[in-house]
Amino acid sequence: MADVLIVCVREDEPQAKALAEMFEAAGFTIGGAPNSDGALRSSGAGVIVWSQASIRSRPFLDAAQRVINADKAVVASLIEPPPPSSIGSSPAFDLSRWSGDPNDPSLDPLFFAVDRMVNAARASVGAGAPAPQAQFDEPPRLAPRAAPPPAPPQRLAPQPQQADPLGGEAEHWRAIRDSRDPSVFMDYLARYGATGTFSEVAELRLKQLTSARAAPQQAPPPRAAPRPPRGLNRRPAGLIRRRSSAANRHRHPRRVTPKRRVVQRRHRRNVISIATICAIRHAIKAAHCAPSSSSPYSAARRLPAVSILAAA
């Protein structure tokens, strides 16, 4: 017969194997889920691995219910323990923080509960046996694995500082490279000569500073007078054009082309025709308004009209 029956689902096999290893180290025989009532009666205890995956399995719930009904259940809960209404008076142990190590001290309450139930079952079964097995208060257990001693901290040897290959020359250059005084670059060239590492740069910097000091300071160009805002104190553009054209008319007389001459003649003729028509209308109106044709006054009034007609 098996001393301890472990009821679990496939997803919880690593945890079940760790529990079986712990019980086997104490001398208990391990069995799976009970497939008959005889196997359940002959066992000492049944460990139910309660997890999120197992509570969704119908075969697991049926096998767990049989173990609970036989008063041989010990619940190893990998999640929050089930309520007492589901497991009755069976003990339940919270293993939600268990890491899976069979030698973890957090498994001690679970192991002692299973040990008491297995010893009680052995005592009841071996009462009529010729050689009953001796009972012991606490089953032998493997000593917990001692953690390896921490390794002593290794002291790293201080690495030698790399010497500056340029020595004091680099320090000297770093101190004067941003200076605007030509004398410091002259002092550098005098100390290290043309073979210095930064001699070319020092010479170039010296030329720049000396040329900047020798160059005469040019007066800034005069600033142009600000232009007045647009639309203030300004003459119309058309008036300026007319004045400029009238002033330059005598200096640059316009050339009269044949086409323009023809246009001028037509314009003059039209003006004369309009003046003639106006004179005729005035004469006719004056003739109709005269009191009589025999009066000397009316004859005198008609004279300008006749002269104008003759002129036309």
Topology (elements, then pairings):
Elements: E1 4-7, H1 13-25, E2 30-31, H2 37-42, E3 45-50, H3 58-69, E4 73-77, H4 84-87, E5 92-94, H5 108-125, H6 168-176, H7 182-192, H8 199-214, H9 237-247, H10 258-289, H11 296-311
Parallel strand pairs: 1-2, 1-3, 3-4, 4-5
Helix pairs in contact: 6-7, 7-8, 10-11
Q: Can you describe this structure?
A:
The chain has 312 residues and is an alpha/beta fold. Among the domains are: 4-124, Rossmann fold; 168-213, no CATH class; 262-312. It contains 11 helices and 5 strands, in the order βαβαβαβαβααααααα. Strands 2-1-3-4-5 form a 5-stranded parallel beta sheet, with helices on both faces. β4, α4 and β5 form a beta-alpha-beta unit. α10 runs antiparallel to α11.
